[in-house]
Amino acid sequence: MTKRSLIALAGALSMFAVTAAHAGDSGWYVGANLGTSDYSSLIDDSETGIPGGVPKNNSSTASGWSVLGGYQLYKWLGLEASYFDMGSASADIGNGIVTANYKLNGESIDAVLSSSTQGWGVFGKVGVTAAHVDEPISASGLSDDATDNSTILDLGVGVSYGMANGWGFRLGFTQYHNAGSTNSTTATGQGDVNFIYVGALYRF
Prior knowledge:
Layout: H1 3-19, E1 27-38, H2 40-46, E2 56-59, E3 61-74, E4 77-93, E5 98-114, E6 119-139, E7 142-162, E8 167-181, E9 189-203
Antiparallel strand pairs: 1-3, 1-9, 2-4, 3-4, 4-5, 5-6, 6-7, 7-8, 8-9
């Protein structure tokens, strides 16, 4: 699925949201999340084949964020679109002989299942992500930049609290599954990037 396909899907979902506007507990909402991302799986895959005796100094965590907008179709189901940036992690291999940075950002469309939009609740989400992985590499004064654009699966779970005045909060976990590529022309490595976050929502 290409980014153009994602845009078409978003349009279709928006039309569906309008037809469901009569449902109870329905309405638009916006939000933002801030947390910590973990690139360990992606970095480990990109280092496959490097001898174990070669010293490595990896900084696999970074600060990530996302912004989102959604429509609550029913009390238990919402549709959500988001833009995210998982920050930059790094790997230093062979005492600085090779240095690589890892960056993931993109757009997601998710279905969000919730036990409640008021008071305490739990939620889960599943969707598709147009993911961009960028891996600038420097080695002995030379530099290169491996990149990959692909559509991947994202999954998430968390707890939420919603207030009567429209404000709500989330504590959640999202996994961007198999980000990157092992293709020889775009070899960024491939692995999961995990995001643990706190977020705020406002429901109109």
